[in-house]
Q: What sequence folds into this?
């Protein structure tokens, strides 16, 4: 089935997707049956049978199969035509943009700063009024938001399917764990170092894969992720599978947060008695990181470099013909995407205080990729929502954790058929253009130059226009 | 927007070559898709390259724009008032930077980006901002970005696509997609514009507005044009000189009315008697 589903009945398409996914998953389960079900017990010399891991494997392969099919089909979706918007009935000289969504309406209105302020205020108050458990979940969710946004640069914006993203996450985490363990370096020193290590590794991986694209790229990056995990498992310095424990939490100017500060917070702000104040600090660190990430990714997307990535995603040949250095674009995308994985890794290590190689398994890469795809490829709000949905919801639905992967898979199928663009589809920046003082759009290119100003958003000047 | 090139005719006269190939050959396995092609694009003129299907026209474009590396031969660009540049072996993006821009036989727009963004990407090679500029949006970057947006809008206005500036490229009607691809190529400020069958798939009305578009580009943009086209009436009416290839070899060259009567050309198109 290579046709885009838009021409078919959704029911049919869903069935077809499920069938293909199940077939792939059944196949893998059959292949892995002995490996996954037979347990050899060396001490009692017995072999026992246990099927408990099978549902997980089935679910995981199902999700992977669905994701894979999604990427193959994405190309087919291009070229679907919609009605063309007309510019009638608009103020003179203003050009109508695409259909507004609630998000663009709010963000384009004058309420955008109040709305953002309320949102930020809410996020800032949250850890003081919620139970420790929720703070932990939020930290985890925010870590995945920044991972998702980082991977989004590689997959969503640049169109490079990276299945080994977790390797860079691991590099960040291990950088902090090892430097802290052996050299006694603190969190704040290791944060940029972790990012640097991950970026450099991203560059390093970038070189061999420059010539690859599509499936080949996916396979090479997948192997890279697995190799990294195996290296971490087998090195002495990383203590192999036992991992590294007692990783210190982030410090705050050397203060003991669980001392008098905690007493003060508990007494005056109603903070939970059992709260580890270090977690609150971690929460704010990762929140800050997420905000920074959002700003950076937004700026990148609407810059010369980001447009080069987008062009590369859309058409590799045409992008070169437009003067874009494909090699450089690919390398920067890989390296920059990895930077955020490194940052998130450092925060993660400090948050959990214990890491081992199994945490950074292939499933983790799939998880992050699912966040990007479910949320909306290339869409910042989409990825945030995707992370919240995929991390917070399962925490609330612990009872079903056995079937988590199967539920993921089903979700993916539904998404692909009904909203192939993700929960919140990426919207391109709208530039409105006013032909100041000119009588119409007929003005010649040379004469109108000085009087033309470009606006974006809902009539707000292009960055710097008003201030310059 | 700053155009550093000297005005047309100031250095180099109209009709001098701006682009020249010598002995250009391209072999795919055993197939000689191009065989010793010598071609010249005159400065500030429209030159056409015609030939039956599969004769090697698109391959010729791919060779001079760096998508393929020619097996043999030279490609030379003569920028007005500047030393000649050998293009063979350069990467496609470098060649675009030197001033060759092209469209594709099968339209290759950036489908999921807006019309304006498509043109903005065309400005890429004339812009400088890198990672630093993207993240910190310093004053120079903001100015450059503003200028690029303005320039792109101007182009859209002058070629009648501004009312769809924020529409996704894939949602444009077919004729406008062709037009956008040409405008996007123009955004790179080319010295030579290479058009690969721009009239393919257009109806009569669209073809005639394409004719106007091509002539108006020639007048406004100080750009030389090399045109591949099957629509003979279009080719005959706009081009000053026509090259004909068949099986990768040049079989004729000259002004339109000579080509029209050339028996070798007629034979290539109509087959052996
Ligand atoms: N990458 C390639 N590998 C092998 N053969 C190729 C390649 N590209 C083109 N060819 C062959 O070279 C010959 C010329 O093809 P080309 O596309 O240049 O023709 P054309 O003149 O553009 O034809 P049309 O008018 O149909 O566009 C054809 O026989 C084609 O099959
Ligand atoms: Mg062709």
A:
């Amino acid at each position: 089935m290579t046709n885009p589903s838009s021409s078919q009945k959704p029911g049919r398409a869903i069935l077809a997707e499920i069938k293909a996914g199940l077939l792939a998953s059944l196949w893998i389960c059959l292949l892995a049956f002995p490996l996954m079900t037979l347990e050899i017990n060396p001490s009692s010399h017995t072999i026992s049978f246990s099927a408990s891991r099978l549902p997980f494997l089935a679910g995981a392969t199902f999700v992977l199969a669905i994701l894979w099919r999604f990427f193959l089909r994405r190309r087919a979706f291009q070229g679907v035509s919609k009605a063309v918007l007309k510019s009638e009935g608009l103020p003179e000289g203003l050009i109508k943009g695409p259909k507004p969504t609630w998000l663009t309406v709010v963000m384009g209105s004058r309420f955008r700063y109040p709305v953002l302020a309320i949102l930020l205020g809410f996020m800032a108050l949250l850890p003081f009024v919620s139970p420790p458990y929720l703070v932990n979940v939020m930290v985890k969710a925010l870590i995945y938001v920044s991972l998702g946004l980082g991977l989004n640069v590689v997959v969503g914006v640049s169109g490079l399917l990276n299945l080994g993203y977790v390797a860079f996450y691991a590099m960040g985490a291990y950088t902090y764990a090892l430097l802290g363990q052996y050299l006694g370096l603190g969190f704040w020193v290791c944060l940029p170092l972790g990012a640097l290590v991950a970026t450099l590794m991203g560059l390093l991986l970038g070189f061999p894969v420059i010539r690859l694209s599509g499936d080949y790229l996916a396979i090479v990056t997948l192997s890279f992720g697995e190799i990294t995990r195996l290296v971490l498992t087998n090195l002495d310095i990383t203590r192999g599978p036992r991992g590294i424990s007692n990783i210190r939490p982030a410090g705050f100017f050397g203060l003991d947060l669980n001392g008098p500060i905690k007493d003060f917070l508990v007494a005056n702000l109603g903070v939970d008695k059992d709260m580890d104040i270090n977690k609150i600090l971690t929460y704010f660190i990762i929140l800050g990181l997420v905000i920074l990430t959002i700003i950076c990714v937004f700026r990148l997307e609407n810059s010369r470099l980001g447009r080069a990535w987008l062009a590369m995603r859309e058409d590799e040949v045409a992008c070169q013909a437009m003067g874009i250095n494909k090699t450089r674009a690919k390398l920067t995308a890989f390296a920059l995407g990895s930077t955020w994985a490194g940052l998130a890794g450092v925060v993660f290590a400090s948050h959990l205080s214990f890491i081992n190689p199994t945490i950074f398994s292939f499933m983790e890469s799939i998880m992050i990729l699912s966040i990007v795809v479910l949320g909306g490829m290339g869409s910042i709000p989409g990825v945030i929502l995707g992370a919240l949905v995929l991390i917070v919801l399962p925490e609330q639905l612990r009872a079903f954790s056995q079937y988590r992967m199967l539920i993921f898979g089903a979700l993916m199928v539904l998404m692909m058929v009904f909203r192939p663009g993700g929960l919140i589809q990426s919207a391109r920046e709208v530039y409105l253009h006013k032909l100041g003082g000119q009588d119409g759009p007929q003005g010649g290119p040379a004469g109108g130059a000085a009087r033309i100003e470009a606006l974006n958003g809902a009539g707000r000047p292009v960055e710097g226009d008003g201030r310059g | 927007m700053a155009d550093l090139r000297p005005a047309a005719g100031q250095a180099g006269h109209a009709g001098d070559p701006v682009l020249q190939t010598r002995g250009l050959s391209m072999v795919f396995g055993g197939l000689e898709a191009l065989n010793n092609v010598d071609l010249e694009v005159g400065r500030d003129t429209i030159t056409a390259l015609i030939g039956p299907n599969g004769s090697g026209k698109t391959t010729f474009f791919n060779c001079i724009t760096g998508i393929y590396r020619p097996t043999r031969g030279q490609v030379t660009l003569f920028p007005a008032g500047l030393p000649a540049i050998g293009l063979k072996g350069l990467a496609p993006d470098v060649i675009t930077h030197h001033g060759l821009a092209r469209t594709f036989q099968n339209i290759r727009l950036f489908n999921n980006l807006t019309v304006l963004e498509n043109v903005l990407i065309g400005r890429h090679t004339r812009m400088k901002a890198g990672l630093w500029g993207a993240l910190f949006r310093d004053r120079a970057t903001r100015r450059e970005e503003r200028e690029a947006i303005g320039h792109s809008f101007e182009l859209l206005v002058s070629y009648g696509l501004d009312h769809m500036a924020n529409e996704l490229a894939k949602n444009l009607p077919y004729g406008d997609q062709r037009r956008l691809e040409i405008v996007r190529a123009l955004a790179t400020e080319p010295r030579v514009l290479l058009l690969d069958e721009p009239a393919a798939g257009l109806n009569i009305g669209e073809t005639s507005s394409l004719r106007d578009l091509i002539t108006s580009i020639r007048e406004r943009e100080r750009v030389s044009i090399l045109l591949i086209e099957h629509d003979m009436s279009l080719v005959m009416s706009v081009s000053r000189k026509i090259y004909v290839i068949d099986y990768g070899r040049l079989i004729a060259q000259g002004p339109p009315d000579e080509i029209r009567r050339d028996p070798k050309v007629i034979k290539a198109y109509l087959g052996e008697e």
User: Anything to note?
Assistant: The first strand of chain B starts at residue 17 and ends at 28. Chain B is about 35% helix and 25% strand.
